[in-house]
Amino acid sequence: MILDYEAIGARIREARLMKNMSQEGLAELAGLSTTHMSHIENGSTKVSLPSLVKVANALNVTLDELVCDSIVKGNAVFESELANTISDCDELEIRIISDMAKALKTSVRNRLKNYPVQHA
After folding, report:
1. How confident is residue 54, by pLDDT bands cut at 50, 70 and 90?
2. pTM of this prediction exceeds 0.70
């Protein structure tokens, strides 16, 4: 199994910013140094499971939310992200986004047929 540490760091950064939290504040809540927190967020270190749990708890998010790019069954997280993305949209915006998502899905599936790489 390969973990995408850059994606994990990006998700941590995104969750931190959504909570209007500084990197220093998160590091303090998680009991980590600010330097280590910076390295985790930019993906330049392989964060340990205990540290990742501390960060998830400090951010009040699940581990799934932080590592969903590296796990096979991460769909629930992505579905939740989609729901959150449109939660402040009005009816017309939701209809347009739905139409675009359907068209994008068709385009992606058509293009993937032309590539030998297997996907789920």
Report:
1. very high
2. no
